[in-house]
Amino acid sequence: MPHRRPPTNTTTAAAPGGDFRKRYDAVEARREKLMVRLRRLGANTQAQPGYKRAIKLLNDTFRKTKLGQRAAVLESAAWLIDLLERLPTGL
Fold first, then answer.
1. For the chain, which has fewer Cβ within 10 Å, the N-terminal or C-terminal residue?
2. Angle 50-51-55 (CA atoms, 0-180°, nearest 5)?
3. Better pLDDT: 8 or 68
4. 64-84 burial string, b = 16+ CB within 10 Å, else e?
5. Do the domain assignments include residue 63?
6. Predicted TM-score (pTM) of this structure
7. Domain hosting residue 46, numbered range
8. Is the CB of residue 24 less than 8 Å from the CB of residue 71?
9. 85 with 41: CB under 8 angstroms?
10. How many domains does the chain have?
11. Is residue 3 assigned to a domain?
12. CA distance 71 to 66
């Protein structure tokens, strides 16, 4: 066919945002660090509604979103964990 494009070689073409696997691993490592911070909170903090929301952000919401949006989900979870860490322990 005269107007047909030649096939592109997908093995040599680079992804526009960089290597997918490196970005994926970096986001997963960041998520794991946030999970560790969340697990270190005491039992009183774990009873707070914000704790359950942070768990939901780091698990359900994180998994449902695309890779590009996961960074924003992690920022939200980090903000919520910061707030939970600042709560008085006697609540």
1. N
2. 115
3. 68
4. eeeeeebeebbebbbebbeeb
5. yes
6. 0.74
7. 20-86
8. no
9. yes
10. 1
11. no
12. 10
Fill in the amino acid letter for 40: R
Each as own residue / partner, the long-range contacts of residues 58-65 (CB below 8 Å, 24 or more positions apart, any chain) are 58/31, 58/34, 62/31
Is 10 a member of any domain? Answer: no
CB 45 within 8 A of CB 51: yes
Residue 42: the pLDDT is: 84
The letter for the amino acid at 66 is K
Within the chain, strands assigned E span none
Q: What is the pLDDT of residue 4?
A: 73
pLDDT at 12 over 60: no
Rg (CA), the chain: 20
Domain assignment of residue 69, yes or no: yes
**Biggest CA-to-CA distance, the chain:** 76
* Residue that has been written with the tokens 């969340």 in this structure: 38
Take residue 83 and report the two structure tokens written for it.
């707030």
Per-residue model confidence as pLDDT tens digits over 28-87: 999 999 999 999 998 888 889 999 999 999 999 999 999 989 999 999 999 999 999 998
